């Protein structure tokens, strides 16, 4: 398929981009999700505004926060020593996003704004309580990750808002992470994936984050499971209870790759694996 | 005749590769004749619907549009419906399909109108302006739905949805089952899959309005067949049709048939007066190219307690599409025809039942029915061994065909050393240390196993008269011409098609070997029906190297004789006393008495005086038509090492070994490439690929995000061990290798999974093996 006719504008400044969005344009970042949708004619904007050259790139640590420019390429974030040191869960999750060629073009902000329910980054940002900065005609606002993902491919961003950066509070230095992803082939979009960050004091969990991708209309936090973990040592019984609680938090659908029940079951399996990785490693 | 040593059998790198790897190949989409238009086809969103209204006025008026045709328009411009070339159920009903749907659409994606415009995007814009009113009808997509007594009928003039029945039989089946010690029964299901190639199918058609001549570039595996069928359908004499073949990015059988969109492009060119290109985009390739593999097979096997199989009976249900492809029921018939595989099963009775469903046509895909047959007979061997407490390899050995030629229910197997090939494979497994690996893994609580499958393959298709009698409206011979020019260089003309498999290199090796010239002095030319020799069946059915190679070998051998006669005249010697080496003819044992092929070539074309004998015709050119007296049976054994994650049902392949015999190998490297590519497709078929439909008939797999091909990450390294049992009846002793890799992989993978899951008693009877299904089987086993 060839895209329906559209006009193309390259934004030179954030203001130009926001102005275009306000007039109905759709933002093009790395194009890894948008271009196939344009070609399939499932999206047919009149104007596409290319934001990929805006200077919203780069990764830096600002005190106890990791700040990622929305237009940072996935591969740049993945290979950034800052990311690896400050938020290793994010660095590891990035290696699961598509293939290197996809990550060379795709952007961190694009992955967030696209909001595929099975995508890795939205779940990681949800696990880590990230804050998204959006710029619209009326100025800048911040949206917490937990308020950001509204449904499959639906976010709190208004059509005239541009995601400009993502701020991730650094997990404490003692935090450990675990990631377990099930996909049909390496680097496919996940069937289900679980991301955890756990802080232990004397083998007892003092803080736990569990997020699941691919098992609900949006990435989800397994709050009840986290609650079960806090104050506990990770015995097999605790692990089993936590895994079941995580599975209970899901609301999956059937698709061609797996029935809903399978995704639910896999959430439990992957939660156990991710937690074991976190405390074992 | 057999050959050994020399260029035949050498691992030379492929002459095609430099062009392919440096981007110098010219594919169908690279062809842009002046004024070319691009076509797009309007496709049905419904699996089954009556076309109530179809209005193309707005599309025709759209700027940039040059022609719009509907199914009815195309029907009025052709002489006959799409041809069926293989009738296996004589007297059975046949679908009457035109290039585009006329009154009813019969599957999601069925084309019903087409536009030619300045570019593809404009053509797609115009498609959106075509106004169609559909009256949706109930659809059938599964075998059971199609056979239900009250099933909606796809073809209203048929009594039901049965598209044909055939029988494959031999021996006394009643007696075999009456006297059996054991009878086992099983049902197998194979998902719909297709031969997806990197390059989609395309055509650039130019209709000459003054001479009514069609010039078509088609990325086809069967240029001569396509030319014949274009002529039949368009009502032209064959000389008015020229089919040319550019470089091809993979075919796998799915580019061998004659497609309606090829006719649509020709008609659009005729209507618009311009060249018209139609190239499937990736999305529509999922519905516009033939599907394959989908079958349900019910079998019963009779055996003695020592493991001897005495009888096999059952039914092969081909879950066909709504309309026949060019080859009709034949892939499903082939499953039955070779269901006994390498085993001497004396009594066989298999019904073949084709059933139409609201899905795209069913056609050729590498393996052509054989992977299913293999899955069945290898499952039978393993099940019998389990049932009788025997080693499955003992059961294999006990039943192997050992005396050749052997008359199986349909084919005559020419030669084989099956037991040795099985040993070769098992030795490779031993050397690889798999048993230790499995033991160690199991000790650590992992689930790892080893599986085997033995296959044989009917290749070198096929004796023309015999295949005609079997219902094939086409021949199986190959014509080749070999020429030495005035500089002594060699050109091979073949009807075979190069599609990435290395056939030019292989045929060059054959000619270089026969003529004793350096390989780089040989050029192979193919791909234009105006000049190429005729190929019967085309480049398919594992026949190019065997049948095409035999034709080249015979022509080149005769040409060599002529060269020697001329040289003998020069030396006043007997041709028997001469030899050719590296393009130089010399008198054996007399150093210094030599003449180059260039000198002989010069005499043959330009300056015959004094060199060319008086009774020798100028030029150095020989032509051969080779029609095999029999097919040739290649064979092989596949072993797979796999592990299963019992919590997720995910399968990982850790090792893959193949022992293989395709007679005389022309180029072992090319054979290995064929085996590896085929094995990758076997992996896809076993673990990933499924064209899925929902209950209403909607297609769920419309892109490579849903239809999963095996990627590099899931294909393990291959180890290949060769043996060579030449085909005595084929010059050169060649057998085919193109499909071998795909045949045994599914069964070997299934058996490795069963072995890994022995404690759960999991039995694999359907493909692909998906994690949710396998997990369910593991859980069911754990509960037992
Ligand atoms: C082969 C392949 C495999 C893939 N595998 C995975 C995978 O495993 N996991 C995964 O998560 N994804 C995967 N993807 C999807 C893809 O990697 C991401 O969705 C993608 O990188 C999104 O980023 P982008 O910059 O390419 O966004 P684009 O495609 O340019 O845009 C995506 C959407 O986000 C909007 N958008 C982009 N940037 C902004 C912004 N700054 N502000 C507001 N809106 C914006 C666009 O308007 C559009 O709607 C895969 C893609 C491909 C092609």
Automatic annotation (TrEMBL), chain A:
<dbReference type="InterPro" id="IPR002346">
    <property type="entry name" value="Mopterin_DH_FAD-bd"/>
</dbReference>
<dbReference type="InterPro" id="IPR036683">
    <property type="entry name" value="CO_DH_flav_C_dom_sf"/>
</dbReference>
<dbReference type="GO" id="GO:0016491">
    <property type="term" value="F:oxidoreductase activity"/>
</dbReference>
<dbReference type="Pfam" id="PF00941">
    <property type="entry name" value="FAD_binding_5"/>
</dbReference>
<feature type="domain" description="FAD-binding PCMH-type">
    <location>
        <begin position="1"/>
        <end position="173"/>
    </location>
</feature>
<protein>
    <submittedName>
        <fullName>Carbon-monoxide dehydrogenase medium subunit</fullName>
    </submittedName>
</protein>
<keyword id="KW-0274">FAD</keyword>
<dbReference type="InterPro" id="IPR016169">
    <property type="entry name" value="FAD-bd_PCMH_sub2"/>
</dbReference>
<keyword id="KW-0560">Oxidoreductase</keyword>
<dbReference type="GO" id="GO:0071949">
    <property type="term" value="F:FAD binding"/>
</dbReference>
<dbReference type="InterPro" id="IPR016167">
    <property type="entry name" value="FAD-bd_PCMH_sub1"/>
</dbReference>
<dbReference type="InterPro" id="IPR051312">
    <property type="entry name" value="Diverse_Substr_Oxidored"/>
</dbReference>
<dbReference type="InterPro" id="IPR005107">
    <property type="entry name" value="CO_DH_flav_C"/>
</dbReference>
<dbReference type="InterPro" id="IPR036318">
    <property type="entry name" value="FAD-bd_PCMH-like_sf"/>
</dbReference>
<keyword id="KW-0285">Flavoprotein</keyword>
<dbReference type="Pfam" id="PF03450">
    <property type="entry name" value="CO_deh_flav_C"/>
</dbReference>
<dbReference type="InterPro" id="IPR016166">
    <property type="entry name" value="FAD-bd_PCMH"/>
</dbReference>
TrEMBL record, chain B:
<feature type="domain" description="Aldehyde oxidase/xanthine dehydrogenase a/b hammerhead">
    <location>
        <begin position="22"/>
        <end position="138"/>
    </location>
</feature>
<dbReference type="InterPro" id="IPR037165">
    <property type="entry name" value="AldOxase/xan_DH_Mopterin-bd_sf"/>
</dbReference>
<dbReference type="GO" id="GO:0016491">
    <property type="term" value="F:oxidoreductase activity"/>
</dbReference>
<dbReference type="InterPro" id="IPR008274">
    <property type="entry name" value="AldOxase/xan_DH_MoCoBD1"/>
</dbReference>
<keyword id="KW-0560">Oxidoreductase</keyword>
<dbReference type="Pfam" id="PF01315">
    <property type="entry name" value="Ald_Xan_dh_C"/>
</dbReference>
<dbReference type="Pfam" id="PF02738">
    <property type="entry name" value="MoCoBD_1"/>
</dbReference>
<dbReference type="InterPro" id="IPR036856">
    <property type="entry name" value="Ald_Oxase/Xan_DH_a/b_sf"/>
</dbReference>
<dbReference type="Pfam" id="PF20256">
    <property type="entry name" value="MoCoBD_2"/>
</dbReference>
<dbReference type="InterPro" id="IPR046867">
    <property type="entry name" value="AldOxase/xan_DH_MoCoBD2"/>
</dbReference>
<keyword id="KW-0500">Molybdenum</keyword>
<dbReference type="GO" id="GO:0005506">
    <property type="term" value="F:iron ion binding"/>
</dbReference>
<protein>
    <submittedName>
        <fullName>Carbon-monoxide dehydrogenase large subunit</fullName>
    </submittedName>
</protein>
<dbReference type="InterPro" id="IPR016208">
    <property type="entry name" value="Ald_Oxase/xanthine_DH-like"/>
</dbReference>
<dbReference type="InterPro" id="IPR000674">
    <property type="entry name" value="Ald_Oxase/Xan_DH_a/b"/>
</dbReference>
